[in-house]
Specification:
Length: about 190
């Protein structure tokens, strides 16, 4: 990815402020373009990262039962409106041939994929696909629950509405009992 362009973002924010009828030189707004540029660099930090890197380190452990990390908080920016959506991710997998990864790596993969202009559906499937490719488990299940500010503060204006997406791969796709186990553990 090319270097993050702070001056270009600052100029764009000034133009937006002017376009809505504000004075970008007003005391409360004078540093807003700089603050927005710094914020964008942070919230879009996943653009130059590959979530596959978190699954390079694999541990040998003879565990071929469910591994679930639930309630992983995440934040992202809707690519359609550039407003936030946020919620919790639940990531489950069944290791194969002793290939397990650090639990924090599951959270880091979600965080990295979310730190881009994004769709919730894409975060869900990207994390599941990367895990299947890099860990070669029996199965992967990723569920995201999120509130989208584009539905809360504009448009339909329905605060509290949650969108739930899932990506089900391998054993979880073929075994309704395995799927049900994950769902019941998430609800606990």
């Amino acid at each position: 990815m090319k270097k993050f362009n702070h001056p270009q973002i600052e100029e764009a924010v000034r133009m937006i402020l002017e376009a809505i009828g504000e004075d970008p030189n007003r005391e409360g707004l004078i540093d807003t373009p700089k603050r927005v540029a710094k914020m964008y660099e942070e919230v879009f930090s996943g653009l130059d990262k590959n979530p596959e890197e978190y699954f390079e380190t694999i541990f040998g452990e003879e565990h071929e039962e469910l591994v679930l990390v639930k309630d992983i908080p995440f934040f992202s920016m809707c690519e359609h409106h550039l407003v936030p959506f946020f919620g919790k991710a639940h990531v489950a997998y069944i290791p194969r041939n002793g290939k397990v990864t650090g639990l924090s790596k599951l959270a880091r993969a979600v965080e990295t994929v979310a730190a881009r202009p994004q769709l919730q559906e894409r975060i869900t499937s990207t994390v599941a696909n990367v895990m299947m490719e890099k860990l070669e488990p029996y199965g992967v299940m990723v569920i995201l629950e999120a509130e989208h500010m584009c539905m809360t503060m504009r448009g339909i204006k329905k605060p509290g509405a949650k969108t739930v997406t899932s990506a089900v791969r391998g054993a979880f796709a073929n075994d309704s009992q395995a799927r049900a186990e994950v769902l019941s553990l998430i609800k606990e």
